[in-house]
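Task card 7
Instruction: Convert sequence to structure tokens.
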Amino acid sequence: MIQARVIPCLLLRGNGLVKTKKFKDAVYLGDPVNAVRIFSDKEADEIVILDIDASREGREPNYELIAEMAGEAFMPVAYGGGVRNLEQIRRLIRSGVEKVVINTMATESTDTIKAAVDVFGSQAIVGAVDVRKKLFGGYSVMAKSATVDTRLNLQQHIENLVQAGVGELFINDVERDGCMVGFDLTLVRSVSQSSVSVVVCGGAGTLEHLREAVHDGGASAVAAGSMFVFHGKHRAVLINYPKAADLEKLLAKG
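Output:
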């Protein structure tokens, strides 16, 4: 039996952990290093860490903080934010990151992705796409924390990333980020036709939402933020992660 991965997605702003809603209104949650430690203790499958300001502000990753977070993780760590060249990717991997997530830079050119795959292997490079549903149908490919509409065709951009050699895709739904209303299964089904592993993020609020994305949408893995850092209707901050037995029962695929 193959079980889809369930991945906490942590957002960095400066040295703090935050959670957004529709990529806006960031709420401070606390120390990101402690959060990684807790998720590691709870045996999360993997963890994704995204610096939500780095690309928009044109600055490099915070290597010192990333190394500290990776040092607390006993599961694979993926990092994204501000990545633009091979030397930055090399420094991130030396900091303990297994996968480097590339988003904004890839909307401009896939040349660096191709070069990075040649050097580090496809398993180390994740192509991320921030997607916003258009008012009259279809989807926009966004960049710089969803502040810029790239005007790229979503399916063509995904194909370009795959052709460049990414080992995985990370698709983030801007309009459902932090809303906990479930995934856009039309979007999930569309992007999950890719020939590489697809992680979907944006909308998870319940275990059933995770099941739908995997079994009804065809996703290889599901990522969530609010679901794993908030508790109850008042959204009290409480880091949580489902028990392995519950996930196995819910998500295992024959």
